[in-house]
C-alpha cells in the first residue's frame, strides 16, 4: 500500500502541507461549496482518526471541536477527542455534556472494506444511518450534517431519511476522491429538530 500511496499526488501534497491524510482536501472542497461550518460552530467529527478533518475544522471555527473514533487520535491543539463507539448512548450523552450546543456533525468514516462491492456499500449505508441518528440526537435546530456514502442500491434509503430531518439535502463528489471510487458525500443543512 505504501508504494501506491507514495505515487498519489494528493496524498503527497497533504503530507507536504502538514495534513494527516488526503481527506483534508475533501472537507475543504465541501466547505467552499456549501459553507457547512460557521466561525462560531461547535463541531463533532465521527470516525475522526487519523484527524485530518479535525485539522481543517480547527481552522474554520472558534467554537469547540470534538473528534470521536474507535481508535485513539493523536493530540491536536484545540481539539478534544473521545475514544469510543458513536452508537453508544453514553458517548452521545458525553457529547451533550461536553459541548452543550452542537451546530455541525461530520462523518468521513468508512467500514473496513471486504472487496465485495454490494456488501461494502450496504455496510457503508448502515454506518451513515448510525451517524445520521447520532446527528439527530445531538444537533441543535438549524445545524448541519455531512457524511461519506458510496453509490449503490441501499443509498436511496439513507437519502430519504436525511430529507425527513433536514431542509436542504445535497450529494457531492469531491475532486480529491481517488479515481474509480464510488465515494461521495451527503451534505445536509438546516436540521429541522
Describe the structure.
This protein is an alpha/beta fold and 193 residues long. The chain has one domain (23-191): Rossmann fold (3-Layer(aba) Sandwich), CATH 3.40.50. The chain is 40% helix and 25% strand. The protein has seven helices and seven strands. It has helices at residues 2-6, 9-16, 23-34, 52-60, 89-99, 117-138, 155-165; strands at 43-46, 65-69, 79-83, 102-107, 139-150, 166-172, 183-191. A seven-stranded mixed β-sheet has the order 3-2-1-4-5-7-6, sandwiched between helices. Helix 3 runs parallel beside helix 4 (52-60) and helix 6 packs parallel to helix 7 (155-165). The chain is globular, with a radius of gyration of 16 Å. The model is unreliable at 1-5 (pLDDT under 50).
Write a concise keyword list for the protein shown above.
single chain, 193 residues, alpha/beta, Rossmann fold, 7-stranded mixed sheet, 7 helices, 7 strands, 25% strand, globular, disordered N terminus
